Each structure stands twice: as C-alpha cells, then as structure tokens.
Amino acid sequence: MKFKLQAILLFLLWATSIQCKKESETKATSLYKNEIKYAKGFSIQNYEGYSVVKVSNPWPKANKSYTYILKEMGSIIPDSLASAITISIPIKSIVATSTTHIPSIEMLDEVQSLVGFPNLDYISSEKVRALIDAKKVKELGTNQSLNTEILIDLQPDVIIGYGIDNKNATLNKLQKSGLKVLLNGDWNEETPLGKAEWIKFFGALYGKQKEANEIFTKIETDFLKTIEIAKRATTKPSILLGDMFEDKWYLPKGTSWGCLLLEQANSNYLWKETKGTGSLAFSFETVFERAADADFWFTSGPFTTLKEMESVNLHYNQFKAFQNKNVYSFSKKKGKTGGVLYYELAPNRPDIVLKDIVKILHPELLVGYEPFFFEKLL
Q: Which residues contact 270 (CB under 8 A, 6 or more apart)?
C-alpha cells in the first residue's frame, strides 16, 4: 500500500513538472514590455529569447491574422509556434515596398539595411537617395510585379509587404521560394498616432524595441501637446479639401486620419459628418454649393501656384479661399526624383502635420514656427 501511494505521488509530481514546463515555454518572461496604445492592426508580445508579432488588419475588413516569430540567436521556440514564419533578429537586410516604411527605418538609424525597393524614384529621403545613387539599393519594378529574380538573388532577411486584399500572387510566390515576407498594415490605421506607432513593428525586427518606443513617445508627446495648444483657438475656420480630377471632385471622408487632424487642429471640415476612410466624389456644383465660402482650402493636386490651378480649372477662382489666397498644398516639397515627401513622411510624423495645420489656421498660437509640409500657393 505504501509503495502504491509513493508511485501515485511520484506520478503526480512528474505530471505537474511536465505541465509547469509547458507553461514556462509559453509564459512571457521578457524584461521589456512593449505596449501598443493606438495601432489596431498589430501586437507585440515579448518572451525570453523571442517575440511574437501578430498582424491582424493588413487590409480593410481582413478576415485572418498573421503571426510572425522574431527569434534571437540561440533561443528556443515552443513547438506550438513552429508553423509560424520565423525571422532571426536583429535583421541585417530588408526590402520595403511602401514609402511609408522608409521613415521608420531611417528614424531607427538602419537605412544601410535597405537593399531593395519598387519604384525607387518615389523615395524622397536624402539618406536613402544617397544609397540609391551609390547603387546599394536595387530597383524591384512595381508592387504588382516585383522582380522575383533580383529578390532571390538578394536574399534579404525580410520583405515588408502590404496587401490591398487577400490576393497577392507576387508575395505568395516569394514566400514559396523560401523568402520571408511580413505584411505591414500601417496604411490601414484610422488614427494619426495609430499609423505612427508602426515604428514599433520595425523596432522589433531590428532588436530596437526600446529605441522605437522612445521615438514614438516623443512623437506622441509633441502631438498631444499641440492638441492642447489648438484648444486655445478663438476661431474655428471652415475647411475645403481636394480638387477636381476629370469630371469629379475628390475629397476624403470625415473619419479618415487627415480629417481627424483637422478636427484636432480646431477647425471645421465641411464634410466631417461623412463616415469612413475612403474618398467622396462629387460634381463641381455640389462642392461649390457647400464650400464656396470656406475659409481655407487644402488642395491635393500637384500645383505650385494659384495661376497654375486656374489654368487647370477656371472655376477654382470662384472660391473665397482662392480669392483670399488661403490655398495650401503639401505637394510642393519633393525628393530630387519627384517623390512627394508628404506621402512618405506624414503618416509617420503626425506631430509635424498637426503643428503645420495649427500654424496655418491659428498662427498666433505657434509664434516662430514655420510649416514643414504645407506651403501657401501664391
């Protein structure tokens, strides 16, 4: 009886030790906690020797998530995670596919790791352009048809892709060839700080989570400070956005990230009641009826002067904002090969965009500040 009791106790002790071991394999033991505060499309969980990155919203209404394991040298990954794509970190080489990826790489001081990009002319970053001029970054064609041969030859540690929907034959082909592809959904975030927070995604890849958090915290602090400054405004100017393309006037829906910035700058976007993050399309007459007396107009067209705008559409001069020379453009500041800097950097630096808008709409609140992205058309 005593022997049988001892055997039972030993079995229970053995079973408990197995259970504890299994729990220890999956329990977070990292000394560093990475909190994602605003972004809805990804998460980072740190464990001893590895991190689990989950991308849950890589394109609008995505119905599946993607799990990536970022593994430090010599660490052991639990069997339960064996099926996920595993990346050895810190990475040394990267292929980006969107200009919005570039600022995060640059802010983390890792531009030398960029080895390939589609449509190099779109890149405006001076540091990356220097690498391009030195033939250190390969041209990869277009996102819809990436040059598979060059990519296989490059063998980057990781390719950062993005999806418009669940159909991306090129990225699927690259994965089947053995290359590591990670989806990035920064463009799908609906808030300014949510977009900017994706620097933490890149920080995890480079083993620089602490540095990425510090950079983001500085952006967040400046952004929130500017919101408080904007609340002191004594006026709330009305805003018109966009311009004509062919026979339609395109402007953003009221809950897109740019329109949220206008609201946070204490202004009145004239289509703020519309829901969604896409575009609205109206006739000229519809826009003019509502916005003829708008105080300010932010055009998205590639204009450099009011005269140029007028030459494209004579009716533009009927708007009060045009007549009062309160028309602003973000398209004038370009890289040396024509890429618009705003498209590349603005999603990563909402703190700068917001300060620009506040300065334009409420100049008395930011004395001495000069807008970085926006320029008045004369």
A: 238, 239, 240, 290, 291, 294
